């Protein structure tokens, strides 16, 4: 029987990348044990073998999970309206930088630029879209999709490491969708009254978790600053990389906004004792599993975002919170309901499969139980006075009696 403080988990389920497993085992062999954060970094982002560098489809119907941009181009179109207002608030700067980190297949960029070109031509003239992705394979994919924009000088690529060191200064908006949830996280557990960290070691049939002292004092400091007390036996994730990220963004953003879309909660809800096992979740061919030691190199691993940490760290590095809301409210405030109505009215093809699929996809962005409510939108700003962003106005004001 395993000791109380270790959980044995095997990986003999489904496909697995043997080369990648060898790389992980070598790393553990060198160090004796590795904190979960290092395991996640290797299995997702190893430059040759990591999940995000495999040639397999990851996002969309043929992949492992859906993201908003894959659901319907209306997401990009609505975000474009928000970006347009930001450009107005900033006094029409040229260029207006849209910096998207972690753009995946590049769909959001394509939808935003296409909409601006056709509906907001004056804004389009001033837009310069910069993409930075950790995955060289996805960067290639983005370059292929966005060729028409890059050849006209509207889209360009920067390596994420270079972005924070040599990039900027930017005037415009840092935009991300489902970036922070994919950052490698530290896993921690409260045990015998102390905070312990989860480490990974090999086991005959796979990998085994053991608890050990925190690998860095930053973990306890994080929970004090941005978390809430854990109950005995409670597990959770600590995303230190998200703090570095927001600090990096603020360093290179001279003036403008940060618009972050992701699933997550504020700290009290994220670390609520009811969420005893934390929020770590793996995705493989549209099924989910809590087990990161299976299907190594074939499944995505993610965790919910701590929005309190982004807000508080943001304040500390000069980014003021402008708005925080659920995605369905943000999209409704930007006109999704009206667009849906217009789409219904204007289409002569009401009963065609294409029409119904389109309508259903748009509606799925609004359903509170689906993508709409778990997903949040956070807007922060730097060097901006009082302003009310369109996406954060109440889309459902109470009726006057
Ligand atoms: C879950 S996917 C989301 C893709 C896309 N934004 C979408 O909504 O479809 C996460 C993306 O973030 C990228 N990524 C992860 N960590 C990153 C980092 N530190 N810097 C830049 N990109 C990163 C991954 O390579 C991938 O493209």
Description:
- This protein is of the alpha/beta class and 401 residues long.
- The protein has a domain at 6-60 and 183-242 and 268-302: 3-Layer(aba) Sandwich (Rossmann fold).
- The protein has 17 helices and 17 strands.
- It has helices spanning 18-31, 36-45, 68-71, 74-89, 107-119, 121-126, 136-145, 147-150, 160-166, 218-226, 240-252, 267-270, 307-316, 327-333, 336-346, 353-364, 368-374; strands at 6-10, 34-35, 96-101, 127-132, 155-157, 170-177, 186-191, 194-203, 206-212, 235-238, 253-265, 281-284, 287-289, 300-302, 305-306, 320-326, 375-382.
- The strands form three sheets. Strands 3, 4, 5, 6, 11, 15, 16 and 17 form an eight-stranded mixed sheet that branches. Strands 1, 2, 7, 8, 9 and 10 form a six-stranded antiparallel sheet that branches.
- Helix 4 (74-89) packs across helix 5 and helix 11 crosses helix 13 (307-316).
- The longest helix is centred in the N-terminal third of the chain and has 16 residues, at 74-89.
- The termini are far apart.
């Amino acid at each position: 029987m395993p000791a109380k403080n270790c959980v044995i988990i095997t990986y003999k389920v489904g496909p697995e990348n043997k080369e990648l497993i060898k790389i992980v085992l070598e790393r553990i062999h060198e160090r004796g044990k590795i904190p979960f954060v290092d395991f996640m970094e290797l299995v997702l982002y190893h430059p040759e073998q990591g999940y995000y560098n495999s040639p397999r489809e990851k996002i969309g119907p043929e992949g492992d999970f859906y993201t908003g941009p894959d659901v319907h181009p209306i997401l990009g179109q609505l975000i474009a309206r928000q970006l347009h207002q930001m450009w107005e608030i900033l006094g029409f700067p040229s260029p207006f930088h849209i910096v998207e980190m972690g753009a995946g297949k590049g769909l959001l960029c394509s939808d935003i630029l296409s909409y601006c070109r056709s509906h907001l031509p004056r804004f389009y003239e001033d837009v310069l879209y910069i993409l930075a992705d950790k995955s060289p394979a996805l960067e290639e994919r983005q370059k292929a999709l966005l060729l028409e924009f890059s050849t006209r000088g509207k889209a360009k690529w920067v390596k994420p490491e270079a972005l924070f060191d040599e990039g900027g200064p930017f005037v415009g908006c840092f935009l991300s969708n489902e970036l922070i949830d994919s950052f490698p996280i530290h896993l921690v557990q409260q045990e015998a009254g102390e905070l312990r960290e989860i480490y990974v070691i090999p086991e005959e049939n796979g990998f085994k978790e053991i608890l050990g002292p925190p690998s860095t004092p930053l973990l306890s400091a994080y929970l004090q600053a941005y978390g809430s007390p854990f109950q005995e036996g409670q597990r959770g994730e600590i995303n230190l990389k998200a703090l570095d990220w927001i600090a990096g963004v603020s360093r290179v953003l001279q003036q403008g906004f940060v618009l972050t879309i992701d699933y997550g909660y504020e700290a009290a809800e994220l670390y609520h004792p009811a969420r005893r096992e934390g929020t770590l979740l793996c995705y493989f061919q549209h099924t989910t599993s809590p087990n990161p030691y299976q299907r190594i190199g074939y499944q995505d691993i993610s965790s919910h975002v701590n929005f309190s940490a982004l807000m508080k760290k943001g304040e500390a590095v000069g980014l003021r919170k402008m708005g925080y809301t659920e995605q369905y409210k943000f999209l409704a405030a930007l006109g999704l309901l009206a667009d849906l109505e217009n789409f219904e009215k204007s289409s002569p093809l009401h009963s065609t499969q294409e029409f119904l699929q389109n309508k259903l996809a748009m509606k799925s962005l609004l359903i509170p139980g689906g993508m709409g409510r778990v997903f949040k939108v956070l807007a922060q700003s730097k060097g901006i006075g009082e302003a009310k962003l369109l996406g954060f106005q109440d889309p459902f004001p109470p009726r006057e009696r």
